[in-house]
Amino acid sequence: MVLERKKERIHKIAVLLLYLSAAFALALTVFHYKRFLKKGDDFRAFLLYFASFFFLFFAIPCGLIFILNREPFQFLKEIGCTLGSSKKGFSIAAIGAPLAVLAGFIGSRNAELRRFYPFSKRACRGPKKFMAYETAYLFLYYLPWEFLYRGILFFPFVSALGLIPALCLQTILSTLYHIGHPDSEIFASLAAGFLFGGIAYITGSFFYTTFLHALVGISTDIFIYRRDYKFSGAGSR
Fold first, then answer.
1. Distance of alpha carbon 170 from the chain centroid
2. DSSP state of 119
3. Residue 196, Cβ neighbours under 10 Å: how many?
4. Is 159 in a helix, a strand, or coil?
5. Residue 124: which residues within 8 A CB-CB, separation 6 or more?
6. Which of 80, 84, 148, 231 has the fewest C-beta atoms lying within 10 Å of its C-beta?
7. How many Cα atoms within 13 Å fall on the side-chain side of residue 211?
8. How many domains does the chain have?
């Protein structure tokens, strides 16, 4: 019985991985932001990109989990969709929050990152548009990102391969997705992969890594927005 359940679980994970292979191909081609940018409006382009990322790496995988599993909520819990060890999680989040903001501030001083972020320059035309953009960034991009890398592509492999190989796997994949970004960010994503993977493992949840990861990225955008756009009128470019 135990062996049958293990085989069934492997089969379900294999189906998810097969889907994710196709999803990555679509995300890097048909639904890549460069294709959306051809229409000229980078605000609309990146909202479409975030929405595509959400459906490809969160909504559809969740749908497959509910279709494939007799106890889908248990499976979601096992891949980190839970508060987990909340005492550890909230403590790490509280300690990590100021460090995440500091990382965002340091990143915002990097000339290469300032040219690259925020993704949408039109979002910097006004505070309401900027806030709408960052909200979409959080829920449509950062949440599915952590669900994917610190959830589906991490927890199942901890039990199958061991902690270190699982950490390496999700770190390699998440770092490769940053190809085309500034070099400093690629190296930062390498370190963050191990750090956030470790936090997910300690807490049993990807919610705390979602908070910290998003805080770094959104803080970077906010500092750049305030420095280069808010008082200069440059957002109208």
1. 12
2. S
3. 27
4. helix
5. 118, 130, 225, 228, 229, 230, 234, 235
6. 231
7. 18
8. 1
Q: What's the CA gap between 170 and 172, in Å, rounded?
A: 6
| CA-to-CA dists, residue 118 to 102, 133, 147, angstroms | 17, 9, 22
Q: Which domain holds residue 171?
A: 2-236
Token digits for 84?
Answer: 């987990």
Query: pLDDT (tens digit, 9 = 90+) per residue, 133-160?
Result: 999 999 999 999 999 999 999 999 998 8
Query: For residue 34, with 0-12 CB atoms within 10 Å meaning exposed, 13-18 middle and 19 or more buried, which class applies?
Result: exposed
Two tokens, residue 169: 């796997």
Q: Which two tokens stand for residue 80?
A: 């980190």
Residue count of the chain, please give it. Answer: 237
- Sorted by sequence, the CB contacts under 8 Å of residue 210 that are 6+ apart come out as 142, 143, 145, 146, 147
Entry pTM? 0.93
Q: Using an 8 Å Cβ cutoff, are 204 and 82 in contact? A: yes
Rounded CA separation 149/33 (Å): 20
Q: Are 133 and 47 in contact (CB under 8 A)?
A: yes
Residue 173 carries which side chain, given as an amino acid letter? L
Integer Cα distance of 99 and 195 in angstroms: 13
pLDDT tens for 68-125 read 888 999 999 999 999 999 999 999 999 999 999 999 999 999 999 999 999 999 999 9
Report cis status (omega within 30 of 0) of the bond before 118. Answer: yes
With H, G, I as helix, E, B as strand and everything else as coil, classify residue 94.
helix
pLDDT over 60 (residue 3): no
